[in-house]
Amino acid sequence: MGRGDNIMATGMARGAAVRGKRIAFGDGRRIAWDQHSKEIFRGNPNIAPPGSEADTDLEWIDYRTGHRIYNRLDRARRRWIWNMDFRPAPGELFFDEHELAWAAGVGTGFVLIEPNVEAFKSWASNKTWPSDRYDAVARRLAADGAEIVQFAHGDHRIRHARQVRAPSFRHAMAALARASLYVGPEGGMHHGAAAVGVPGVVLFGGFIPPEVTGYAGHVNLTGGAKACGSLRPCAHCRAAMQAIRVEDVTAAAQAHLTQSRAA
């Protein structure tokens, strides 16, 4: 699982400790964490770690690498088939005092824009909005008085953005909790925004349906496309991203910011 998958897991576990339970993510015999689980689950009282399999307070959920519930591979292993009955609950992250203190230094009320998609994934191009369009959105929002922040990583750096280098993903999420808005692709950052209660303008395009991994508090843009789940670079997904206009993203962002200022 990636970081986004782990954040979704925290939503599945939400409230377990209040019931005197902890959620065990695994096949009912072995708790299966991945390389990101320890980082995302740190401090979470609702989730049982590996080694707890014999404890009596466990409730098992078969959600793990290779069994994500919200999708499955087709027979040819060329695309994801989405489980349209799945709905994510916003996750939660439990920050320590050092993460919160660092985040406080980043500021508050800014717009976090993230243009980069993890390039190692075979379907990365299917989730990528043109970088010059992110620049155009940042320029328009900055002209309206918004402060634009980007976490310094990846190939594309937003013009008009203050670059912030976070010590870890958790530090970045603690800072994101202080933002007024997230703008960027579907993925770990958008799941993180939902977990810390920040509204978002999320560019889904034609890869994954917002009904499956989107949140009600976000504006989820598809370019009018039906999600295909292609694991290879896809003309349909490229066209869907091209159909999302700078004006669409800017208007959605401005509506969120106006509402936030009025609150």
How would the blueprint of this fold be written?
Elements: H1 3-13, E1 22-25, H2 37-41, E2 58-61, E3 71-73, E4 80-82, H3 97-104, E5 111-113, H4 131-143, E6 148-151, E7 161-164, H5 169-176, E8 181-185, H6 188-195, E9 200-203, H7 210-213, E10 218-221, H8 235-243, H9 246-262
Parallel strand pairs: 1-2, 5-6, 5-8, 6-7, 8-9, 9-10
Antiparallel strand pairs: 3-4
List the defining traits of the structure above.
six-stranded parallel beta sheet; 263 residues; alpha/beta; globular; 9 helices; two-stranded parallel ribbon
Description:
This protein is α/β, with parallel strands linked by helices and 263 residues long. 32% of the residues lie in helices and 14% in strands. The chain has nine helices and ten strands. The chain has helices at residues 3-13, 37-41, 97-104, 131-143, 169-176, 188-195, 210-213, 235-243, 246-262; strands at residues 22-25, 58-61, 71-73, 80-82, 111-113, 148-151, 161-164, 181-185, 200-203, 218-221. The strands form three sheets. The chain has a six-stranded parallel β-sheet with strand order 7-6-5-8-9-10, with helices on both faces. A two-stranded parallel sheet has the order 1-2. Helix 7 links the parallel strand 9 (200-203) and strand 10 (218-221). Helix 3 (97-104) packs across helix 5. The radius of gyration is 18 Å and the shape is globular. The protein starts with a helix and ends with a helix. The mean pLDDT is 95.
